[in-house]
Amino acid sequence: GKGIAVFTSGGDSQGMNSAVRAVVRMGLYVGARVYFIKEGYQGMVDGGDNIVEANWSSVSGIIHKGGTVIGSARCMEFREREGRMRAAKNLIKHGITNLVVIGGDGSLTGANLFRQDWTSLLQLLVKNGEITEEECKANAHLNIVGMVGSIDNDFCGTDMTIGTDSALHRIIEAVDAIAATAYSHQRCFILEVMGRHCGYLALVAALTSEADYVFIPENPPPENWSEKICNKLKQERSMGQRLNIILVAEGAIDQHGQAITAEAVKKVIVDQLGFDTRITVLGHVQRGGSPSAFDRLLGCRMGAEAVLALMEANTATEPCVISLDGNQAVRVPLMGCVLKTQAVARAMKERNWDQAVQMRGRS
Ligand code: ATP
Predict the structure, then answer these.
(1) What residue stretches are annotated with the Phosphofructokinase domain (predicted)?
(2) d(CA 225, CA 267)
(3) 300 among annotated binding-site residues
(4) Could you report how far apart the first and last alpha carbons of the chain are, in Å?
(5) How far apart are CA 302 and CA 100, in angstroms?
(6) How many helices and strands in the chain, by DSSP H and E?
(7) Nearest Cα residue to 268 out of 239, 235, 222, 231
């Protein structure tokens, strides 16, 4: 059967384990040999114990775990040709010519580059006597399928990325917990949530937690935001509300592209209203805890579809990512999505927010 390997790369997210499990079990079901590659591209470059053949029970009892049990890493060597050559050799020694990569746009870009390079890497390996002509012929084509694991929901081409829903659960739990103590002491709380270029987490958390105000990178507030927020908070208090909740995405900016930090918001409120104001930075708590039912199911569906895509692939098949489109797991061109995601990041940097939001589409 075909040799398939699955690995997780870049930042971890809840639901990655479910995706790994689905790839292994679907792969075995269709008669493939399935391998884990531990520690992302680093494990692929280092080989050895990092590449392990999987069986049905090696993915038992992981679906409920957060993070990624097979490890993730950032790997400088894979960015160089020399590193990719070592990775190619390690794969060929196991007869692996099908890769499932679970990661962000960087990881997917790396995978695409690896595939483009594959033929010349193999020729070099033959030339150096590291693999035989037969091994070269038997492993002539590399197939790639990606899945996006990210809590930020910042990838173009999919309605949801694996981990976003669980991160939202964590944020909502934290807001609810803080609201109770804020109520008791009539305090104002500012919560900083993750999302570098993408305000999805902050926006959806604000909508679902009755926050009074939210700052996101895609929609910088008007110049007089300090006046606006103070009026809003005063109004809430005058209607009998005992607390205020403000969410700030970590990438929030003003009209000039300057960061709006939780500290800056606090200063405005303390200086102008004198409210007892506290800051909570949620940080990596958002990546922790067990994956939600939604993320477990998303991982299952995407993982199964990824294997089907690999089984149907031929030498002419372009790499795809499995995306969620209106509750269907579908295949979309990998590089198209990566380029669009990078274009959105550029538009954000150039402060073309409307264009960025439009390009990002439904997600
Ligand atoms: P996150 O969204 O969490 O940042 P990511 O996949 O975008 O996830 P990166 O750190 O950008 O995270 O990439 C992960 C790894 O993928 C890198 O450490 C590197 O090994 C590989 N990689 C990224 N970009 C490239 C590239 N252009 N060429 C080769 N390899 C790359």
Answers:
(1) 4-309
(2) 13
(3) no
(4) 37
(5) 11
(6) 12, 11
(7) 231
Q: What is the pTM of this model?
A: 0.95
Tokens of 206: 């604000």
Q: What angle do CA 299, 141, 162 make, to 5 degrees?
A: 15
Residue 60 marked in a binding site: no
Measured CA to CA in angstroms, residue 183 lies from 171, 238, 240, 264, 326 at distances of 18, 15, 11, 23, 39
How much distance in Å is there from the Cα of 9 to the middle of ligand 1?
Answer: 7
Type of residue at 85: M
Determine whether 216 is exposed, middle or buried from the number of CB atoms within 10 Å of its CB (0-12, 13-18, 19+).
buried
Active site residue 176: no
**How far apart are the CA of 107 and the centre of ligand 1, in A?**
4
What ligand 1 atom has the least distance to the C-alpha of 150? 2
Rg of the chain on CA atoms, in Å: 23
Instruction: Specify whether the CB–CB gap between 321 and 98 falls below 8 A.
Output: no
CB 187 within 8 A of CB 277: yes
Active-site hit among 12, 152, 154, 165: 152
